[in-house]
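User: My instructor asked us to take a sequence, write out its structure as tokens, and then describe one feature of it. I'm not sure where to start. Here is the sequence I was given:
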Amino acid sequence: MGDWQIGTFSCFSNCTLCCATMFIPCIVIGKTAEAVDKSFCLCCIASMIPLVNIITFVQTRGAVRDKNGIDGSFINDCLCTLLCSCCTVIQTANEVGVFS
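Assistant: Let's start with the prediction itself. The structure tokens for your sequence are:
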């Protein structure tokens, strides 16, 4: 099993992705979901609905983790998403190469 390419709090390592996540997070989440064979539109819309967005973030992060063989757990995904969702979205999107 492997590790994430960037740490959870390495948000600024990709400035384009960081700015996109700040201003159009639904697109970033949709693109990340699309990279793991989930629906871009469904995840994009779900990311704008309170509470549903948290579930969407956690599921997408788990799918990226599984696809790339990264160590972790559902609990870890939940904690990262709840404590710093923006950093978690950036880390997950970076892993699949969104805007790179």
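For the description part of your assignment, you could build on this observation: Residues 52-68 form the longest helix (17 residues). Try explaining in your own words what that tells you about the chain.
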